[in-house]
Amino acid sequence: MSIISEFKAFAVKGNVVDMAVGIIIGAAFGKIVSSFVGDVIMPPIGLLIGGVDFTDLAITLKAAEGDLPAVILSYGKFIQTLLDFLIVAFAIFMAVKVINQLKREEAVAPTLPPAPSAEETLLTEIRDLLKAQQSKE
């Protein structure tokens, strides 16, 4: 088997394609959540705490000296990233919860017992015939 055919067999496996689709959707979902947090959630929170933008919160550890840049601890960006993560984690939790609930509803749906096999049907007929003969005697 050549390298190209091995790669083709690997690349078109269902799991690899599903994983690639998941990564692409996850990246797009991450952008949506970042926009939601930055543009919808954070402005009201900033307004409640006096118009502070979390991304601007920082502590200067060492001022700039000549050509050396300042050393800044940007804890506001960390807070923003933490909120992004919490919202993404909650959204994924809710999606998994809905999917699990739908699976449970599927599993609860009554399933009909399997039809008896031809052998079972034949044995049942033989049993019934034997019972009928015994009752005649």
From TrEMBL:
Homopentamer. Channel that opens in response to stretch forces in the membrane lipid bilayer. May participate in the regulation of osmotic pressure changes within the cell. SUPFAM superfamilies: Gated mechanosensitive channel. GO terms for molecular function: mechanosensitive monoatomic ion channel activity. The gene is mscL. It is found in: Cell inner membrane; Cell membrane. The keyword Transport applies. The chain crosses the membrane at residues 12-33, 78-96. Its main location: membrane. One of its GO terms (cellular component) is plasma membrane. This is Large-conductance mechanosensitive channel. Pfam families: MscL (PF01741). The keyword Transport applies. Belongs to the MscL family. Keywords: Cell inner membrane, Cell membrane, Ion channel, Ion transport, Membrane, Transmembrane, Transmembrane helix, Transport. It is a multi-pass membrane protein. It comes from the Bacteria.
